[in-house]
Amino acid sequence: MITYRVLQVQDSTDGSDFVSTASSFSPSNTVPQVISSSNINGPIYVIGNTDAYSTTSGSRPIAPKPSLVDNTFVVQVKKRDEKRRATHNEVERRRRDKINNWIAKLSKILPESPQDVKGNGQYEGHSKGGILAKAFEYIIELQAAETRLGGYIKDNKKLTTAVDQLRAKNFALESENAELRDLLQKHGIDVKPSL
Hints:
Helix 1 packs parallel to helix 2 (about 130-185). It is built from 2 helices and 6 strands, in the order ββββββαα. The protein has a domain at about 5-60. The strands form 3 sheets. The chain has a two-stranded antiparallel ribbon with strand order 1-2. Strands 3-4 form a two-stranded antiparallel sheet. A two-stranded antiparallel ribbon has the order 5-6. With about 200 residues, the protein is mainly alpha-helical. The longest helix has about 60 residues, at about 130-185. It is rod-shaped. About 50% of the residues lie in helices and about 10% in strands.
């Protein structure tokens, strides 16, 4: 069975610390005792049998509790964080530069509209958002033009086929007309050639 007790360490003016407990159950072998009174991290208390920790020659040396934060570890973490932050900033700067370069290239290939030219005939630069919006509108215009051109190509193919058929029919009629003229001339009828 495990019992828990509330311990309260009180400081006295003479430098000796003592422990007061609040418990209804207090066997003699579980009274807390000060084992070591070092000023490094405070005294060390043992609840239970202290025979394992002390000998007749005095108290056994116990390693003091390590400090909560190791300063060298904090410095290493800060250096690692700074390096990670610097790497991240460099990657982010390259990404921004790449985006800015592509936006600049886009702005150079976009056609100028009358709204882009100032009164003195010089080109007025746009913000990145303005350039992207103009590129979007231009792409939509190109898609609409491509759709229209696709329709024109189909119409052109149909018209080309119709023209080829009419040429063939015209050639056949001209051949037939020439045969009929020859026949009329054989019979003595003079026919004027048509243009």
